[in-house]
Amino acid sequence: MKYIGNKTRLLNFIDNSCINSGLPKSGTFIDIFGGTGSVGTFFKKKGYRVISNDIMTYSYVLQYVSIAIDEMPPFAKITDDGILGVMNILNDPCLREKGFFYENFAPGGSCGRQYFSDSNAQRIDAIREKIEAWKNENKLSLDEYFILLAALIDAADFVVNISGTYGAFLKIWRSMALKNIYLEIPQLFNNGLQNLDIAKNSMPFMLYRIWSLMQMLGISS
Ligand SMILES: C[S@@+](CC[C@H](N)C(=O)[O-])C[C@H]1O[C@@H](n2cnc3c(N)ncnc32)[C@H](O)[C@@H]1O
After folding, report:
1. What is the largest CA-CA distance in the chain?
2. 59 CB under 6 A from ligand 1?
3. For atom 13 of ligand 1, which residue has the closest CA?
4. Within a 10 A sphere around the Cβ of 11, how many other Cβ atoms?
5. pLDDT tens digit sequence for 29-69
6. Contact 65/73 with Cβ under 8 angstroms?
7. Is 41 in the pocket of ligand 1 (CB under 6 A)?
8. Disulfide engineering: 206 pairs with which of 44, 53, 102, 144, CB 3.0-4.6 Å?
9. Which is the closest atom of ligand 1 to the Cα of 36?
10. b/e sequence 35-73, b meaning 16+ C-beta within 10 Å
11. The ligand 1 atom nearest the CA atom of 3
């Protein structure tokens, strides 16, 4: 993701620092400022039980999918073809409408901003509405709902017209921003442990919650 502070490029450094500090090779890894979830996902794959947190909602969604979910759910109330069938529906270019994203973040909207092309903003609006409608019709489990939201967040981030932060858009279109938005299937990983994404906590409260959760689950390391 285009997120300043994303630690993807520092994962080996963080890993080596943990090894050199003599930290245990298994146990519970707590990521208190999870952001994109890159660090928690890395340590989940290394076999740690991961507990992750962040105060922001986008982060909660991404981490819920990469940390807390282990296997792809069936999406049985939407299609017989599982996640592939759902992605086919959502990636249909005819699915578009002029909603919140179009109005606020596309040049054609009333704000005239250039975060997304008119076409992509309309696609984001329609996909977001579709996901919410499925949820309200009880066609999605919580895991299915978060998987689709995470796929949309990632896809939108891929075609956004910014240089590194969402504080400002670029005046000239970057080439990626002119490509059509396309949702990819999120990669899931099962490490056989119960990993947790703790909902949107500010740090002090989160420390108390982690301690309570560890007591509840009988985790001592
Ligand atoms: C530099 S980013 C973390 C990046 C992350 N390691 C990654 O690779 O994406 C810092 C994160 O801390 C979160 N944060 C800042 N203050 C916080 C607080 N008081 N409680 C919880 N999260 C907080 C922010 O929302 C942000 O996502």
Report:
1. 56
2. yes
3. 33
4. 14
5. 989 889 999 999 999 999 999 998 888 999 999 999 999 99
6. no
7. no
8. 53
9. 9
10. bbbbbbbbbbeeebbbbbbbeeebbbbbbbbbbbbeebb
11. 9
Gap from CA of 188 to ligand 1 centroid (Å): 22
| Per-residue pLDDT reduced to its tens digit, 78-108 | 999 999 999 999 999 999 999 999 999 999 9
Q: Which amino acid is at 34?
A: G
Average pLDDT over residues 144-148: 97
Tell me the HSE value of 28 on the side-chain side, using a 13 A CA sphere: 18
Lowest mean pLDDT among 122-126, 150-154, 185-189, 197-201: 197-201
**What letter represents residue 91's amino acid?**
N
To test the pocket of ligand 1, the residue of 1, 12, 51, 54 to mutate (highest count of ligand atoms within 8 Å of its CB) is 54
pTM for the complete prediction? 0.91
**In sequence order, what are the residues at sequence separation of 6 or more whose Cβ sits closer than 8 angstroms to the Cβ of residue 10?**
none
- Average pLDDT for the chain: 92
